[in-house]
Specification:
This protein is mainly alpha-helical. It has one domain: P-loop containing nucleotide triphosphate hydrolases (Rossmann fold, 3-Layer(aba) Sandwich), CATH 3.40.50.300. It has helices at about 1-10, 15-25, 40-55, 70-85; strands at about 65, 90-95. It has a two-stranded parallel ribbon with strand order 1-2. Helix 4 links the parallel strand 1 (about 65) and strand 2. The protein is globular. It starts with a helix and ends with a strand. The model has no long low-confidence stretch (mean pLDDT about 90).
């Protein structure tokens, strides 16, 4: 877990101010709407990691929706890299 915390802290330092706000403010749902290559996947993955490490919620309490199968795969990979086995409990799906 300590390497995961170090990963989270290191990744947070690379975000811009708007992304940091989205990661740290964990009350309620969040919608990230931005163009390609702007860090959406990273921001959402870090927010999920932040929630898991700073609350008593488990991965089974988190639903992550995206608009493509590629987005699902990218998010699952990023979550696995960031938080490890707990990421398998998170529901990551695509919707229209």
């Amino acid at each position: 877990m300590s390497s995961q915390i170090a990963n989270l802290i290191n990744s947070l330092s690379k975000l811009n101010e708007s992304q940091k706000i989205a990661v740290i403010n964990t009350d309620g749902p969040m919608l990230v709407l931005a163009g390609p290559g702007t860090g959406k996947t990273q921001t959402i993955a870090l927010r999920i990691g932040h929630i898991l490490m700073n609350t008593d919620l488990g991965g089974e309490n988190i639903l992550c929706l995206t608009f493509s199968n590629a987005g699902v795969e990218s998010m699952k990979k990023r979550l696995n890299e960031l938080i490890g086995k707990e990421s398998e409990k998170i529901l990551v799906h695509f919707t229209y």
